[in-house]
Amino acid sequence: MNNDLKNILEKRSDNFETEKSDLIIEKKERKKSLDKDFQKERSADAGQKKIESEIIVSDGASKGVKTHLSQKSAEVEKIENILSEGLEDAYVNLSARKQLEFKKNGEETAAKIFFILKSTKVKVKKIIRLIKEWLKMIPGVNRFFLEQEAKIKADKIMEMK
User: Fold this and answer.
1) Helix 2-57 vs helix 96-118: crossing angle, to nearest 10
2) pTM of the model
3) 99 in Cβ contact with 91 (< 8 Å)
4) CB 149 within 8 A of CB 135
């Protein structure tokens, strides 16, 4: 009986060690993926700055393109500013990786909201849902706070339209 119990415990500990090593490998792979994403974002930001500078330098026919791009980015920036209002403390308390993810998702959310606002029929519920999903990234945030903040930010965004 004791030998059977020992065998079972040894098998479980072997399984535990295997699972532990699998989790470590998975964690390393995720870290590499995040590092790659971070590098891509850096290079994309550099590429975007280069494109913007080329548009500014060029003349004549491309002036209409320049103003269109700057208007679009200005509206997205306004949405980003509305989304970030009052979240400075929560952002500072996040780890560096979480800050990067939070910022990236915030920018994506702002872009999605921008396209929702440009559509003919604006659905406020979609905007609120997007904001709530983004705010859920903050660890330990209260559900009622999420709901309230999402509605306040959606109202401000709707005033912008």
Assistant:
1) 60
2) 0.55
3) yes
4) yes
